[in-house]
Design a protein that fits this description.
The protein is of the alpha/beta class. Helices cover about 35% and strands about 15% of the residues.
Length: about 400
Amino acid sequence: MAKGKESKPHIGIYGRRNNGKSSLINRLAGQDIAIVSDYAGTTTDPVKKSFEITGFGPVILMDTAGIDDEGDLGTKRIDKTLATIKTVDLAILVITHNTFGDFEENLIKEFKNTDTPFFIVHNKSDLQSLAENTRTKIVAQTQSDIIEFETIQAQNIEKLIKKIKTTIPESAYTNPSLIGDLLSYGDIVLLITPIDIEAPAGRLILPQVQAIRDILDNDAVAIVLKEREVDSFLRKTGITPALAITDSQIFNKADASVPKNVPLTSFSIVLAKFKGDFENYLKGTPKIADLQDGGRVLMLESCTHQVSCDDIGRVKIPRWLTNFTGKKLEYDVVAGLDKLPRDITEYSLVVQCGGCVITRKQLINRLRPAIDAGVPVTNYGMAIAYVQGIYQRAIEPFTKSNHSATEYL
């Protein structure tokens, strides 16, 4: 249930069966995009719909199964509903008939555990309005605002939209700069982009595209070339780039070609700083040297893709880690936002990809169990730089203003 390429704010609608969640979505959308029925349990799996809320802008609304579903199948539906909380930017909890109990309290606990902003809608208020004692109880327990609503006449629709605007975090719909703080007007940035079997035919990979756009947005100049052209280009032009960014897989080649006075990092490390838990990556990466025989490493891919014979996460990084440590290590690979095959405490290290297709919130929540359990975490690019002996140079563009590059070694 990753956002994928959708950068629009994600809003999840939660509550018990037959509380009018789907009707609420239809009313917000101004069209019938969710199935509505008097029969409880019509929505069986989380469903995402993209549209524009009048007066707010484009969003993804996520309709979820009732949190009070029953039976073995119902339990699976509830699990899927709970899993979506890690992916949404705002949660709306729908209640009716002054009913607020364990189901709602457990949902709110999950909202708070994942730092998900939320508010409560008391729906079907035309049938039964919100009692003052119920409001007092809920506010005391949750510190959340409650909006009365009824979908037939769209009572309080403007108030509801205003609440969405004021509750959803600004980070959900703004796009901060990838490397803007490293650039000045007119700076030249060298992007070293190998074209290998993992590169999509006729296209660049997403992090490369994102970097080009960010450089242009910051009134700088992007020069894109393959690794074998770097030496010739620099020699012929005499250009000294303000920054060089390389694919992590060719760090050694880039390190040899790019002059030492030019800051060098990788697309993966740029993403690590942009949306990952960079401070914990800095702490966790040197723990690679502490891996022991029998240690288990978790490789976290954020997307699903066709696996090549020399896949970066499944083949190359495990090979480099094993060669660097000289230890017999075990590896698990988990793609997308799938469940882990074993308890997080069984791992000695977690290696997360750049996360170009998921949000910062999804990535942080993905890493949270490991960090809470004291399991070291790192990032593809940072791990590669470490085992190839160029870690300090690779992180220096992002650490020199705040930390010594050796502080975390």
